[in-house]
Hints:
The chain is of the alpha/beta class. The chain has helices at about 15-35, 45-55, 75-85, 100-110, 145-155, 170-175, and strands spanning about 65-70, 90-95, 120, 130-135, 155-165, 180-185, 195-205.
Amino acid sequence: MNDFSLIDLVVSRETMERLEHYDALLKKWTPVINLVSKSTLDHSWSRHFLDSAQVYKSVDNLNGHWVDLGSGGGFPGVVCAIIAAELAPKIRFTLIEADQRKSTFLRTVLRDVDVNAQVLSERVENAGPQAANILTARALSSLKNLLEFSDRHLVAGGSAIFPKGANFRSELEEAKKSWAFSHVEYPSVTDENAVIIKVGDIVRG
């Protein structure tokens, strides 16, 4: 694995070893339960790990409760939890994933790397309101739907952070038909056509 120099993030050798172990588990489990596209496994650092770490880097107020929606193979939630275990250990993490097999994988990774986080095996829309200070989701749904989830799970004054691809502007326009919100866009370091969108002040329109 490489370092995080592209996003100006410095972590210890222990944190890198945790991420490397996670990567090994990802490559072991993916052929069995399809955690990520198999075609991305040879480029897992840039496609998944660095892509998730830049979500962590975009958070301003690193405290409280961080909730990752539809965690799947653990991106960005597990990567952010591993980094936070060193750099912001007071953050409490909850990963929500409806698929039981993926939930088992997430619990296995967290146990093996010795990082404390809760895994809820529920659908995002059915889980009890999480009172999240930080909310993340990657490749889960449209921004419009993500704002619906944010309205349920995010506390007032919290931030929702969503990596989005080349169609992000059309997603923003569609979301604005149903929601009022503030947002900031950060260019992705892993995809020149992608952005990280940070959303706040969410009010149903």
